Prior knowledge:
Layout: E1 3-11, H1 14-30, E2 34-40, E3 54-60, H2 63-70, H3 76-85, E4 86-94
Antiparallel strand pairs: 1-3, 1-4, 2-3
Amino acid sequence: MPAYVHVNLRIKDPARQAALAPRFQAALQAAGGRILHFGPVAQMLEGDVAPLPMAGILEFATLADALAFYQSPEYAPIKAERDAAQEARMFVVDAPSID
C-alpha cells in the first residue's frame, strides 16, 4: 500500500532552499520516493488554519519506506539545515486501497 508525505511550507531563505533542493531530491530517490506534486497553494477551501504558501506530496511504496526516508542518515543533515531555509509542516498518510 502506498504512503504519501504531505508537506506545506514557506520558503524563508531562497538561496538556502535552492542549495537543499538537489540534496533532498537525491535522498528521496535513494529511498524510493518520488515527488507527485510541488507548487503554490492555489486556494484554501476549508478550515481555520491558513496553509503556508507552498505544498507538496511525496509518494512511497509503503509507510515503512516513508518513515525510513524521514529517519535516514541521508535525510538527517537536510532536516538539520531545513529550519533556516523554510518553515514547514509535514505529515504522512498510509493509503489503503478503497474498493
